[in-house]
Amino acid sequence: MVTKNSIEFDPFIERKAFDETKVGVKGLVDAKITEVPRIFHVPKDSSTDKKPSVSVSDLEIPTIDLASVHVDTASREAVVEKVRYAAEKWGFFQVVNHGIPLNVLKEIEDEGRRFHEEDPEFKKRYFSRDFNKNKFVYNSNFDLYSSSPSVNWRDAFSCYMAPDPPSPEDLPVTCRDAMIEYSKHVMSLGGLLFELLSEALGLESDILKSMDCLKTMLLICNYYPPCPQPDLTLGISKHSDNSFLTLLLQDNVGGLQILHQDSWVDVSPLPGALVINIGDFLQLITNNKFVSVEHRVLVNREETRISIASFFSSSALPNSRVYGPLKELVSEENPPKYRDITLTEYTMGYFEKGLDGTSHLSNFRI
User: Fold this and answer.
1) Considering only CA atoms, which of 155, 321, 279 is closest in space to residue 227?
2) Which of 7, 268, 289, 346 is the most exposed place for a label (fewest CB within 10 A)?
3) SS3 314
4) 271: preceding bond cis by omega (within 30 degrees)
C-alpha cells in the first residue's frame, strides 16, 4: 500500500535532485539551511547509535615513532614489534617522525580546503562519477546511489596518483602542486610501512610490495562542512576500507572514531602525525592476522573538517590479479579463512553495497 509519506519522500528522487545540483553538501551550507534534508538522516534504529563512545583519555590508538627505523637492526626490530601489535590488536595506529615535512602536510590540507571552498561553477567543471573518463573526480558521496540507508555529510575529490599519475593539466590549479608533492612523499612512506608490515608477519621485507600492494594509490580529500543538526547524520557511516593500507592526514578538528572492543574510540588529532589503518585486502591476505577495523566520522555544528586519505588499492581500476591468504601464513592448524578474489570483484560489490554499516569482507569467508 502506498502511504502519503511514501509519496512525499522518495529517497532516490531526492538523492538524484541533490546530485544534480553539483554543489554537494557545501552548497546546502552556502544556502544557509537550518535543517538537514531527510536523505542525510541516519536511521533511528541504526547500530551506529548503540555503541558507547570512549574518550581518548580512556583509550588511545598506538602512536609509533619512526625516527629510529633506519638507525640499526635492534631499533628497527623494536619498531616492527610495535607495528605488529598495532596491526593485530587495533588495526589503526598513528605515526610520527614519518619523513613527510610539515610544510607539505600543511599545503595539501590548505589547498584541499581551497578547492572545496572555490566558486561552485569552478568545481562543477570537475564534477563526475566516472574514473574512466576523468582523472580528477569531484562529487558528494561515491555511494550516493547504493543501498546505503543514508547520505553522508561529506564532499570529496579523488584522483589516482599511482601508478600512472595525472598530468598537471588534469588537476585543478587550486590544488595541483600540493597533490603532486604530497603523493611523492606518501608513496615513499607507504613503501616503508609495507616493509615493516611484511617484517611484522615474519616474512621478507619486500613480500607485500612484490604483491603490488604499493602499486596503486588513490588520493581522496574529504570535506565536512559545519552541520546545523549534527546529531541526525554522519560524516562517514561505519565502514572498513576497500584497500590494503590507508594513510590519513586529518586536521585538528577531530571526529574520526574507530570501533574497538565494541566501543567507539576517538582518534584525536596529533599535530604532524598520520593515521595508518589496515584495509580489508590486508586482513584477507594475512588470513585475519592483521585486522581491518570499522570506523566512522562525526560532524559538528561549528567547524569544517578536512582530511586527506591515501588508499593503497586499485579499487575502481581494472586489475586481474588474484589474491588470497598468503601460503606462508596458512597451515593445517590455521587453514585459509577466505577464498581467492580479484580486487575488481571485491570493489564492485563494495560500491554496490555502499557504506551501509555491514562488512563486505565477511561475504568472502570460507
Assistant:
1) 155
2) 7
3) coil
4) no
Task: Give the pLDDT means over successive 10-residue stretches in the chain (366 positions).
Answer: 54 96 98 97 68 64 97 97 98 98 98 98 95 92 91 97 96 98 98 98 98 96 98 97 97 97 95 98 98 97 98 85 96 97 92 87 94
CA distance 321 to 144: 28
Q: Which residue reads 607485500 in cell numbers?
A: 208
CATH number of 10-364: 2.60.120.330
DSSP H or E run through 185: helix 176-200
Q: Judge residue 21's burial from the number of C-beta atoms within 10 Å of its C-beta, 0-12 exposed, 13-18 middle, 19 or more buried.
A: middle
Q: In whole angstroms, how far apart are CA 193 and each of 62, 278, 301, 334?
A: 15, 11, 36, 26
3-state secondary structure of 347: helix
Residue pair 222/307 in contact (Cβ under 8 Å)? The answer is yes
Q: Rounded CA gap, 96 and 121, in Å? A: 39
Instruction: Answer yes or no: are the C-beta atoms of 301 and 227 closer than 8 Å.
Output: yes
Residue type, 1: M
pTM: 0.94
Residue 251 to residue 365: CA distance in whole angstroms: 36
Report domain extents, the chain. Answer: 10-364
Sequential DSSP letters for 6-34: HHH--HHHHHHHHHHH--HHHHHHHTT-S
